[in-house]
Amino acid sequence: MIRQSDYENYDYRQFWQDDKRLYEDSAERLVIKKFISSIKNKDAKFIDLGCGFGRLFSEYSGFSTVIMVDYSVNNLKNAKELISRYVKNDAELINKVVFIAADVTNLPLKPGIIDYAMTVRVIHHIDKPDRYFAEVARILKSGGTFMLEFANKRNTKNILKFFVGKTRISPFSKEPLQVGATILDYHPKFIKSLLKNAGFEVKKMVSASNFRVGFLKRHVSLKILLFFESIYQNIFSFISTGPSIFLKAVISLSNKSVQSASVKSGKPQDDGIDTNYQLKNSNDKKDSNIINASRAITAINPADLFICPSCKSEGLEMSGTDSIKCTRCSRQYPVVGGIFNFKD
Fold first, then answer.
1. CB of 141 closer than 8 Å to CB of 70
2. What is the C-alpha separation between 318 and 192, in angstroms, rounded?
3. CA within 20 to 30 Å of 14's CA: 146, 200, 253, 268, which one?
4. Beta strand 65-70 with 140-151: parallel, antiparallel or unpaired?
């Protein structure tokens, strides 16, 4: 069991500041651009599950509805500020973005309403990814697409360490590998098997950040690294030895009927932007032009989007401007700063 990462007490922007992970960021964007560029119809609902501070928003900002989900309210506040700056405080553009604080294994969303889902740098914080995949399958429409990234146990570094005797843990076994207190590396075959059990069919696999080596990052220009990264992603991804693996999976049509029956019965399915994101000083004055929270809320009808994560009822309604209420169990969830907070 891994310890839950607490991004309420840690500013996740620090992890990416000063361009120290610019290669990783750029390598991940290469994959995401390829996945999203194949989507012709942007008149759809796109959800970023575990969105952090909105680092990747610019890659999917063209969709008609964008839903940002994270467990950390602090992350979502930072994401809202970053996105407001990115869209230049355009009220119409910001109103198409929904900010939700929630547990990704218990999402407060109706079944079958999402066209495209994405999750990056999240699964390594989840010790039961099968529950998560079942939730994603539930909220996706028939034929919906799930784009996911996970930390790869069978990476080149782990393989070399195993063969030279620096570790006895085989990178080829399917069991997850715990790294520190908060991270789990997963074997590609293990993740694929869980996706299959959840009703997904994997259409594409891409090995990413393949040259994530300190020496190379210090002595080789980013442009050259990304040139070879792109070649590797396009030609050698089948080797799947990069530290990050991206999968593009589609929910099967037959699985949705099973999902729908489960939802109706009330039984949970437990088995189964802009790269300018430098950290601001915490004492800096807030941008006075950031869109007012109430204006962001007016574009959202809870009845069209949410279910109660506690009792699974679809009977949710706004209670004033600062909370949302379940008409079945009377549970109330706060809405603060334009963020719907469904955390326990």
1. no
2. 39
3. 146
4. unpaired
- Nearest CA-CA partner of 245 in 312, 199, 195, 198: 195
What three-state secondary structure class fits 150? strand
Residue whose C-alpha is closest to residue 249's, from 132, 154, 156, 155: 132
- H or E stretch at 231: helix 222-235
Parent domain of 240: 12-260+279-291
Please state, in angstroms and rounded to a whole number, the distance separating the CA atoms of residues 90 and 311.
36
**Closest CA relative to residue 269, chosen from 100, 106, 70:** 106
Report the C-alpha gap between 85 and 79 in whole angstroms: 10
**H-run or E-run covering 157:** helix 156-163
pTM of the model: 0.88
DSSP string, 97-130: EEEEE--TTS--B-TT-EEEEEE-S-GGG-S-HH
89 Cβ neighbours under 8 A, 6+ residues apart: 289, 290, 291
CA distance readout (Å), 294 to 213, 257, 323, 325, 336: 46, 37, 11, 17, 9
Total number of domains in the chain:
1
Is residue 65 one of the residues assigned to a domain?
yes
The CATH number of the domain holding residue 84 is 3.40.50.150
Residue 314 forms part of a structural domain: no
Q: In a structure prediction context, what are the per-residue pLDDT tens digits for the chain, which is 344 residues long?
A: 788 777 888 999 999 998 889 999 999 999 999 999 999 989 999 999 999 999 999 999 999 999 999 999 999 999 999 999 999 988 889 999 999 999 999 999 999 999 999 999 999 999 999 999 999 999 999 999 999 999 999 999 999 999 999 999 999 999 999 998 899 999 999 999 999 999 999 999 999 999 999 999 999 999 999 999 999 999 999 999 999 999 999 998 666 544 544 444 444 343 333 333 333 333 333 443 333 333 344 456 778 899 999 999 998 998 888 999 999 999 999 999 999 999 97
User: What are the tokens at 224?
Assistant: 């050259």
